[in-house]
Amino acid sequence: xxxxxxxxxxxxxxxxxxxxxxxxxxxxxxxxxxxxxxxxxxxxxxxxxxxxxxxxxxxxxxxxxxxxxxxxxxxxxxxxxxxxxxxxxxxxxxxxxxxxxxxxxxxxxxxxxxxxxxxxxxxxxxxxxxxxxxxxxxxxxxxxxxxxxxxxxxxxxxxxxxxxxxxxxxxxxxxxxxxxxxxxxxxxxxxxxxxxxxxxxxxxxxxxxxxxxxxxxxxxxxxxxxxxxxxxxxxxxxxxxxxxxxxxxxxxxxxxxxxxxxxxxxxxxxxxxxxxxxxxxxxxxxxxxxxxxxxxxxxxxxxxx
Length: 305
Prior knowledge:
Number of domains: 3
Helix content: 10-25%
Number of strands: 20
Shape: elongated
Strand content: 35-45%
């Protein structure tokens, strides 16, 4: 009990003893008819004493404080996780780093019942930050009891998972030869293309906001999102391209008939596996054969005058 509760208890005790003593005097003066009154007073005393004891015990089972370390050991450098507690943002986990925070547990019969609630983890997505999954691992029961007895926080670990909502991939070939660094984006997600690079970009797409309907280059709209066709962006608008393919099951190879002319952007008729890369010498497949293709630049045909 606290000092305040103990003082209240002693005050109630003295008052009740006086009340009992008064009841006895009344019984002596008034005779047998007052025995019922004494009995009622006695029960009243017991009830009040019980109530005081209950008040004194509130806090004995105070919920534990958990010290939580959040991490995803398998995360890549670009992944980010925001930690929220009761709707308030606490901090961000970058890549495979860690973030530590304290959270109030709950009263409960089991240790699982005691674990803190109102924790959220969010990841950046096409239309903003969305909830993702995590697992909370508490200390062993004996360690929890020891921590509570020593009035210190209970250690716990939080395993973060990068599990976004359902989506479709959008494939974008960016030929940035002769150009400065570029930023390709769909909604809130983006990828950097270094200066002078020819790069295959994969960005996820899911509905939910107007900004997710278009592919943007340096925040400017280039083309509508198309999850079925590969988008080709030529920064200098000066290159021609053709698809080359190889059939590894029948030792055959060739190239397509279409030559894509210089344009700022265009959708391809197929979805090549590679961009500006040579085809591999061999591939491992479970079937009898496999076909791989790549989009490479070729000399632009001369125009008839």
